[in-house]
Automatic annotation (TrEMBL):
Catalysed conversion reaction: tRNA(Phe) + L-phenylalanine + ATP = L-phenylalanyl-tRNA(Phe) + AMP + diphosphate + H(+)
Gene3D superfamilies (UniProt xref): 3.30.56.10, Bira Bifunctional Protein, Domain 2, Phenylalanyl-trna Synthetase, Chain B, domain 3
GO molecular-function terms, A-Z: ATP binding; magnesium ion binding; phenylalanine-tRNA ligase activity; RNA binding
Keywords: Aminoacyl-tRNA synthetase, ATP-binding, Cytoplasm, Ligase, Magnesium, Metal-binding, Nucleotide-binding, Protein biosynthesis
Subunit (UniProt): Tetramer of two alpha and two beta subunits.
SUPFAM superfamilies, sorted: Class II aaRS and biotin synthetases, PheT/TilS domain, Putative DNA-binding domain
Lineage: superkingdom: Eukaryota
Enzyme class: ligase
Protein's recorded name: Phenylalanine--tRNA ligase beta subunit
Cofactors, names only: Mg(2+)
GO terms under biological process: phenylalanyl-tRNA aminoacylation
Xref: InterPro entries: aa-tRNA-synth_II/BPL/LPL, B3/B4_tRNA-bd, DNA-bd_dom_put_sf, Phe-tRNA-ligase_IIc_bsu, Phe-tRNA-synth_IIc_bsu_arc_euk, Phe-tRNA_synthase-like_B3/B4, PheRS_beta_core, PhetRS_B1
Length: 592
């Protein structure tokens, strides 16, 4: 959930009213937001960066830090927040965004070479903008918030904003070899090519994190104007030539992307929120983006779509009973203009503006009704149908067995669900490729590469961490393992298992065998003798994890449910254990 910081006095001036901290917190809560902290710039610098020198020069002006829902991109700056709150309070109607057609549209042409790296681009122009220092800072901060949020740290979308009066269209979006791109980066004085730029920003506090996005590519994306002046090298940095300032009147906005839908959302959000500062409010100048096949598409789209929702269903889902006209008013206060269908009194016609890309389903509209009504105002009621809750049977059995195994002298451990490939493979003398393991696509550490297929490695690691404790060490765990399963909806399934390990001067096979017998006794499962159809027994088996001739399958009703035996010395050595161990592991799901 992103957090934005807004100056309290500036916020109250825009809202047209002063609030106490508690009053504003209540307003935020009613609107579905949360006032996270009341602080100052000085306190923020000291707390977040520990920069006492910078904090000494910082302002003591009060700053409200507000938590914004991750999907509400329209609230990520002061302009959007103020508009949203004023509409919610009924002080203004949701603004309508219009296009202004220029004498000649700006054109951005996409070269086929961009398909190798960032194939999409969109653009727009804001005319006759008046920036103050605060609105300029808000404009820059919004871009940063969008980059971190919907743009996924510029991997999906990179935003470039330029002073249109310093450049000349038509513009071209190309992809060239790094050494062919030369320009002066933002706030620099020396010209760099693509290779030099990567070295120059390798240690930059903010920009170094974006370099890997394109660094290893044979071509880098670049945007030129008609005079071959570089506007930007997305997603890294803009050119210094076209940088915007407080004097900028006309802003050219371009977004390059690997995801066209996200690029459209980002462009709509920026132009809608900051068209408020145009001389003709809430107007945007469209641009033509020429695709690689020669076709031209106009951006931004600023599409307003209509959704129809049932009043009866909305009331039922939320648990209220309000007339259609009141629900329509609630939605209008949430920036979704709504009216009752004259032909069908049970239907609401809801207009979704270009600022509310988070509304993708009827349930999103129901949620906004609930927020406007007030969650605390919804009366608590019993379910319309009778149902008695009870504990999930497998969890109930797990809790009962935990208590009994602990009373048998074993200490419970709770280990990580993720482990390394070697933990369930090489260290257990098994081939990881032949195991039904679920692998993590992009593991952050070597310790968490796969989901465990057995509880045994976790217990052995726990033994190693506690090897200074006096012997015997008897540990157990009852938890899930995850096994790959092609016939499962998600490609994997969970299996609840009990695993116990005895570590002593001698392996103590009889200890884990005794625990198995005790568990079966508690489960009322008899030892199978003769021609009995039911019961459990042991069947000799060979497993490279266990000592040869000291391993057996745990059988239940003639099906294998686990293994029991003395661990192989090489397994103990792999886990850095020097004392013999015996172990038992079996699934408890058949006993539910």
């Amino acid at each position: 959930m992103p957090t934005i910081g807004v100056k309290r006095d500036l916020l109250f001036e825009a809202l047209g009213k002063k609030y106490t901290d508690d009053e504003f917190q209540d307003l935020c809560f009613a609107f579905g937001l949360e006032l996270d902290e009341v602080t100052t710039e000085k306190q923020m610098l000291t707390k977040e960066q520990g920069d006492v020198a910078a904090a000494a020069d910082a302002s003591e002006e009060i700053i409200y830090r507000i938590d914004i829902p991750a999907n509400r991109y329209d609230l990520l700056c002061l302009e959007g927040l103020v508009t949203g709150l004023r509409v919610f309070q009924g002080k203004v109607k949701p603004p309508k965004f219009d296009f202004v057609e220029p004498a000649q549209r700006q054109v951005l042409k996409i070269a086929p070479s961009t398909a190798q790296i960032r194939p999409f681009a969109v653009a727009a122009v804001l005319r006759n903008v008046t920036f103050t220092q605060d609105s300029y800072n808000s404009f820059i901060d919004l871009q940063d918030k969008l980059h971190q949020n919907i743009c996924r740290k510029r991997t999906l979308v990179a935003i470039g904003t330029h002073d249109l009066d310093t450049i000349q269209g038509p513009f071209s979006y190309e992809a060239l070899a790094p050494d062919q791109i030369k320009f002066v980066p933002l706030n620099q004085t020396r010209e760099l090519n693509g290779i030099e730029l990567m070295d120059f920003y390798a240690t930059h506090a903010q920009l170094k994190q974006y370099l890997p996005i394109i660094r290893d590519s044979p071509v880098y994306p670049v945007i030129y104007d008609a005079n071959r002046v570089v506007l930007s090298l997305p997603p890294i940095i803009n050119g210094d030539h076209s940088k915007i300032s407080l004097k900028t009147k006309n802003v050219f906005i371009e977004c390059t992307a690997t995801d066209l839908t996200k690029a459209k959302v980002v462009l709509d959000t920026i132009v809608c929120l900051f068209s408020e500062h145009c001389a003709q409010k809430f107007t945007v100048e469209p641009c033509d983006v020429v695709q690689t096949d020669g076709t031209s598409i106009s951006y931004p789209e600023l599409a307003v779509r209509e959704e129809r929702v049932s009043v009866k269903r909305a009331n039922a889902y939320i648990g209220i009973n309000e007339p259609a006209n009141k629900l329509a008013d609630m939605l209008t206060r949430m920036y979704l203009e709504a009216e009752v269908d004259a032909k069908d009194g049970d239907t609401l016609k809801v207009k979704i503006p270009p600022t509310r890309h988070d509304v993708i389903h009827a349930c999103d509209i129901y949620e906004d009704i609930a927020i406007a009504f007030g969650y605390n105002n919804i009366k608590k009621s019993l379910p319309a149908f009778m149902q008695i809750a009870k504990q999930f049977p497998l969890n109930k059995l797990t809790e009962q067995l935990r208590e009994q195994v602990a009373q048998a002298g074993f200490t419970e451990a709770l280990t990580f669900t993720l482990c390394s490939r070697d933990d369930i493979g090489l260290k257990l003398n098994k081939d990881i490729e032949a195991m039904p393991a679920v692998h993590i696509g992009n593991p952050k550490t070597l310790e968490f590469q796969v989901v465990r297929t057995t509880l045994l490695p976790g217990l052995l690691k726990t033994l190693v961490a506690n090897r200074k404790m006096p012997l015997p060490l008897k540990l157990f765990e009852i938890s899930d393992v995850v096994l790959a399963a092609a016939n499962s909806e998600v490609g994997a399934r969970n299996e609840r298992r009990l695993c116990a390990v005895n570590c002593n001067k001698s392996a103590g096979f009889e200890v884990v065998h005794g625990l198995l017998d005790r568990v079966m006794q508690l489960l009322s499962v008899p030892w199978k003798t003769g021609n009995a159809n039911q019961g459990y027994y042991l069947q000799a088996a060979e497993d490279p994890t266990y000592f040869p001739g000291r391993c057996a399958h745990v059988m239940f009703n003639n099906a294998v449910i686990g293994k029991i035996g003395v661990l192989h010395p090489s397994v103990l050595q792999a886990f850095e254990l020097t004392t013999p161990c015996s172990a038992v592991e079996f699934t408890i799901e058949p006993f539910v």
